[in-house]
Amino acid sequence: MLAPKTNFVKIKCECGNEQITFSHASTTVKCSACGKTLVEPTGGKAKINATIIKLM
Q1: Which DSSP string corresponds to 13-39?
Q2: What CATH number is attached to the domain comprising 36?
Q3: pLDDT band at residue 14 under the 50/70/90 scheme
Q4: Collapsing DSSP states into helix, strand and coil, what is residue 10?
Q5: For a designed S-S bond to 15, which of 32, 34, 38, 41 qualifies (C-beta 3.0 to 4.6 A apart)?
């Protein structure tokens, strides 16, 4: 059985807030605490502008 190429990712913003997002997010994800853009869609794997803590 093949493993999926997409997964959820736990990320940490510069302000210290932690969030869970999708590795291939199709919408912009902003920090729920400070509003900084953390994830930008690219049409495939999303560009993550935060520290990746854990792949889930």
Answers
A1: -TTS-EEEEETT-SS-EE-TTT--EEE
A2: 2.20.25.100
A3: very high
A4: strand
A5: 34
